[in-house]
Sequence to fold (230 residues):
Amino acid sequence: MANLLVSAVSGVVFGLALAAPPGPMNAVIAEESVVRGWRAGFEAGLGAATADVAFFVLAWFGAVAVVDREPTIRAAMVGVGGVLMLYFAYGAARDAVSRSTFVSVGDEPGTSKGFRKAFALALTNPYQIVFWLTIGVGLLQPGTLDVLAHAPYVGESMGGVLVVTTGSPALLIGFFAGIGCWIVGFPAALVGAGRRLDAFAPTVAALSAVVLAGFGLLFLADAAGTLGLV
Fold:
């Protein structure tokens, strides 16, 4: 029982460590949260998480391994993802200009496209596929996992801090629970801050536009390099 609890808690830490760092998904969640309310931000996070579940299932059965083997397919996905990010960056910039204050609207179902935006971005992100082909699928295979070593940006400095035994479903359940905590708590924190500071919404929308545009350009450059266009 104690081992299951340790595995579950380690999974939660792993999920949070992967979900929390800045990136395209959090940019979409942030924009949706401050412009359209908590529900919209949560739905955007749910879109990204749904793609993770789909990738896990497909990777477990080997259905997406072709992306890792075929550079042309990978480049096409990166290119499409880059175009989508630039398009969503334009939408975020437009929101930043049109919103002079924080307005908590859109908490009713059906007013946000956040789920579709985040889901589409995740589906065109081959890096998520590679994660599930390697580290993700390994969560259910006997062995060990250096949890924090795979955290974006700080992995090298955190290596060896939390090493857990894999092969337990509790670790995978905890992992998705950690992602769930993030997609609930992050929008809530943003909405709470926005209600206290009127200028918060346009500022966050503008930062989201910058993040999405930056990653979009990086994705397009990556695709062009893989295809030998530059």
Observations:
- Residues 106-110 have pLDDT under 50 and may be disordered.
- Strands lie at 143-146, 163-166.
- The longest helix spans residues 71-98.
